[in-house]
Amino acid sequence: MQHIPSATSVRKPHRRFGIVRVSVYMAFLLIIASWIYLFIGEQANLAELFSAKNVRYAVQFLSGLAGVGVDHPAFLDIESWKRALALTYQTLQMSLMAIGFATLGMLLTVIPASRVVAGGTESALLRAWNRIVYGLVRAMYVISRSVPELIWAMMIIFFFKPGLLPGAIALALHNFGILGKLCAEVVEDLDMRPIRNLASSGASKAQILIYGIIPAVLPRFLTYILYRWEVIIRTTIVVGFVGAGGLGHEFKLSMSWFHYTDVTLYLLCYLMLVFAVDLISAGLRRWMQ
Amino acid sequence: MSSKLLDFHKKNILTVLLSAVFIWSLFSVQWGPDLFHPGGQAALGQMMQGLLQPDWSPAILRLALSAAWTTLAYAVAGMSLAIVIALVFGVLASGVLASTRTARNVQVIGFRGALGFMRAIHELVWAWLFVAAIGLSPFAGIFAIAIPYGGILGRIFADMLQDVPEEPITALRAAGASRLQLLCYGYVPIAMADMLSYLMYRFECAIRSSAIMSFIGLGGLGFQIQLSLQDLRYDQVWTFLLFLIALVVLVDMWSQLLRKRLVA
Amino acid sequence: MSDTAMFAMKQVSKSYGSAYTLHPLNLHISRGELVALIGPSGAGKTTCLNILAGTIEPDAGLLHIAGKPASSYASGKHLAKAVGIIRQQFDLVGSLPVLHNVLAGRLHEWGFGKSLLSFLFPQDKHIAADALNRVGLSDKLYDKTSHLSGGEQQRVALARLLVQQPQAILADEPVASLDPARAEDVLAMLVRLVQEEQLTLVSSLHSVHLARQFFQRIIAIKEGRVFFDLPTADVTEDHITDLYQLTAGHGMDER
After folding, report:
1. Which of A99, A115, A275, C129 has the CA that lies 20 to 30 A from C198?
2. C44-88 pLDDT tens trace
3. Does A288 reach chain B within 8 Å, measured CB to CB?
4. What pTM was estimated for this model as a whole?
């Protein structure tokens, strides 16, 4: 009575897992190939990594950060703290500017970037125009988010003089694409029924925007904006490396002059800033719920 | 009544508040023609021209291809280490292995704190600290990606493990599963799909992070972009940029394909 | 303690805050008995089952499981050899193949290494295949569990119990989320398997009809007390009516 099903009848091919399975194999292949390449092509050497010389360097660097043997470590100096806090303040302003610019760019483009066509009474010409604009904006989003902030900063520093503004713009250029993509998805996922309802009850386009669309998308938009702000604050220091001012710029100078206690001070300020922004953002999001 | 009115307007208040701080931040810049380089506009023009006519010569294409592979290899190697870090720290930070309530709290707070520190510092800052400490080595780049990505992945993994529905876990426990067995027959399989799709999203980010490791002197697309910028060869800059964009888009497509399968 | 007792409760009680969920309760269930727990929702059926299962500790009283004090079961692994549990649904890990969900019944026998190895090379596969065959799902061994219907998933949970081989099965509304026809199927299968394996079964049910149809003994619980405890044949319509009658006045007196 109790027959155990034979292997052939049981081992059905499961097509559902096709892509998952191929992805897993591909991932393993990539990982192995990458490590082989890094060990051979790029001469990564684990033994050298932990050589006595490297250990000595590391100890030297860490004790430099800790201010061992330094008469007046910067992180114990009031004047240095004042300067560092001023820079922290500037960095915060840069991050706010950056998220503001990115949001402005996103708001200007998000409607054409979402495949929502209200009404449907447009002429064929208008439809074609809409499609072209959609493609263009989406291409902009892809370019914008694929290029990291640091590279945007390296490029626009040819145009702007060093300062907070180019840093903010570089950060905004990258986050514009990310915010745009996220928010366009929100608009596309919008429940259209209440909006059609408004339209059929004779609301104008502006009224539909204010009563139908904005209340529905605002919470998600705000959440995304706050979340990107958290990411931006971590990156402010990096665009500072190429002349965008703020903590990053001074961090770079101190590194190149081997003023390691200054480095410690700036890192402390940076960490404080990051944790503070994380807390504020999380607090605001919770408050909004 | 007034508190309900406040609830209703919370989003509007937040919008006004954010707009206000944005406007306030604008005052940090002294607006005027002094913001621009004298020859800035010409440079901008050339840059735009470069976008329209990138350098497609075979030599540059070959270079771009090998640079793209280097960038990908660093991203993959960094991510593979990050996954190991994230699994170990994430499982511990979720507290699912802890036997008592106190042990659980200690674990959760301790490891979540460690993860928070790892991801608070940007990967390039990690990279620079590594270079300063151990000198320029590919490992500086790999570790610099692995640590912050391990931090963010670990935190998200911990969240996902904590959000696992209780019923199957209780059932497994009743069937006599130990805590480690609960982990691998319950928690992980249930959270696997979400973990994988988040991992793919982060992999896309890792490609960009890998590209900027050039700043500390490692090879790859970022390095080539930097060289071409120094030579003012904007047409080449755009060739490399387009390769970077293509790489990111490819990974994005892969991850979307996978995500669609996993969610279904 | 006689050896024929599967479960023996002596003055077992449980309260949350000031209100009793379960008043001090004496209960004796012999090996091989088929017992249905019925009663209005919130009456304490689930609490009673959870205490029997050892998942919640009673505030007071003594519980013997298979002749040994409940507290003497050092770990879940030992308890799992005595008592198996099946609940409404959602008990399975949907993302795993059916095979692994069934083999989860072996986890109490396996060490960690063997359970890891089993992901790549399923261990004791014939046991799982055998169990699935007995619940009529032999062709679903490698299917993703979440793709199965509700009734099929409950049968997978049964197969897991077969693999676990406990001495008694506690079922908490095992068919509550199934449609009537399927509920009867699954319950019939549960009872048949319990009888074939000569196990003890205690199941809470909200359907009196099903309780009468499949069980030898019916224990009714109301407001944390045993309302009646009778062989099925002796349960009359009056009993049932009384059991489910709203007792608002009585409830208020108590507060």
Report:
1. C129
2. 888 888 888 877 888 888 888 888 888 777 677 788 888 888 887
3. yes
4. 0.83
